[in-house]
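=== RUN LOG ===
request id: a7f3
mode: sequence -> structure
chains: 1
length: 77
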Amino acid sequence: MHYGASTHLRPDLVLSKAVEYFASLGLKTVRRSPSTLSMEDAKGQVAITLSLGSETEVDIVTHGYNQEVKAFLQRIG
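=== RESULT ===
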């Protein structure tokens, strides 16, 4: 499933919050750059891509973590 949102948070803060939140669910970081993050476990995966405009645009693709991604987006919104 694909999700998108905008936030006033800086990209580095969005990724830090994502690592903290999704790691608490048992996902492990498999790739990270200043604008991307991929985490996964046996249940599924979460891939985040950020772009900066007037706000930080957050694009998330997930398999197996739809409700958790929605909750994360509400946290950073």
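=== NOTES ===
The two ends are 19 Å apart (CA to CA).
The domain at 2-76 is CATH 3.30.310.80 (TATA-Binding Protein).
=== END ===
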